[in-house]
Amino acid sequence: MIQIWGKPNCPYCDMAVNLCKTKNQVYEYKCLGKDFTTEELFEVFPDARTFPQIIVDGEYVGGY
Fold first, then answer.
1. Could you read off the pLDDT of 46-62 as tens digits, one per residue?
2. What value, to the nearest 5°, has the Cα angle with vertex 50 and ends 49 and 52?
3. pTM for the whole thing?
4. 42, 48 in Cβ contact below 8 A?
């Protein structure tokens, strides 16, 4: 399972989602302000500075 933590109007977030769709991968998209807050983002990804943040099968991958 792929988790994509993104934000609205982010072209890299859109590219990550489109890549999952193209490759027929099961994914979950979480959107800033709707599914999580900035504080929750930094709890999970303390060093995050860009979007999206991606986890694949429980392993942190990083950004797009």
1. 999 999 999 999 999 99
2. 135
3. 0.94
4. yes
